[in-house]
């Protein structure tokens, strides 16, 4: 019975580990397939443990070997779930810290009271503790640990793995070696303190990741235009200052939609919003990865262009406007001016003023002309008035 109780002690520990891991990861297969494959792998592990025990004439397989065998569950988890290797390891170490602490505590309690049925009592104590602690751990895993894994920056994820590994290693070494001759009471106290430190560290990581996420969201709100989804005026100044500080050449392209008030008055403000979104799409597709687009105000946009061939940009922009602006309302044109850093000015304010001046010169001359083709007219005016 003692041998059977010891096996169930390990199986219960394994079951809690796998349940916790399952709840933190996205599965590739059905639950039925996962259960069958994990059972088969577990039978293989028990067979290996039996062979090790027989070969070395052991009464039981010691803790260090069991830990190594337990770590091999990384491979079926990697096969059955979508998560990356470092996330799977983080989850495994997180779960094992819980189960190893509970199992060690249960065994020490049963030993301290001198029960004849040592492992049977340890199994009973472990089961009772799991009934109370596992829901708490699972709730933390689903609400907080999963949040950490989903939102932690990729460059910091390796540190989460290292931290989890170190905490797991310290707990394992403490249980197996450093306090082997210590009093059972101090064994329990030491292991419990290590587990508490691990728990606190995970809570701190959760707070850090959550606050970092909130900061990123606030930065997004501060630097993004809520209608079009592109960057706003504040973001433009930050990005330009960074380029200027690095002395990297760029071009400010100032764009002002012609007669936008007429769109709102004729079709309504909702249609005006659609008009702006279509124009934004045409502009961002033209720029691509060669710069960024910013909305300065209602109908004014600025493109931060990282290349010098502004003529090619304008030609491409002309084509994009024709292909993208397929609306139930006519496109009334856009007036454009530009200024280059460092040729035309050395500060963002001066660059905007220069580009704005050229743009309004284009707009004034456009109003004096007939308009056979609004887009072409706008660009022809622009080309004749570039500084």
Describe the structure.
This protein is of the alpha+beta class. It has two domains: 221 residues, no CATH class; 154 residues, Alpha-Beta Plaits (2-Layer Sandwich), CATH 3.30.70.270. 72% of the residues lie in helices and 7% in strands. The chain has 14 helices and five strands. It has a five-stranded mixed sheet with strand order 1-3-4-2-5, with helices on both faces. α5 packs antiparallel against α6 and α5 packs antiparallel against α8. The chain is elongated and about 105 Å long. It starts with a helix and ends with a helix. The C terminus is likely disordered.
Looking at how many chains there are and whether they match, the oligomeric state comes to single chain
> How many domains, in number, for the residues?
2
How much of the sequence lies in strands comes to: 5-15%
Helical coverage, percent range: over 70%
Gap from first CA to last CA: 94 Å
Radius of gyration: 33 Å
Main sheet, how many strands, which sense, barrel?
A: 5 strands, mixed
The succession of helices and strands, N to C, reads HHHHHHHHEHEHHEEHEHH
Q: How many individual β-strands?
A: 5
Name the structural class.
alpha+beta
Q: Which stretches are poorly predicted, pLDDT < 50 over at least 5 residues?
A: 371-387
Tell me the strand order in the biggest sheet: 1-3-4-2-5
Question: Tell me, what's the shape?
Answer: elongated
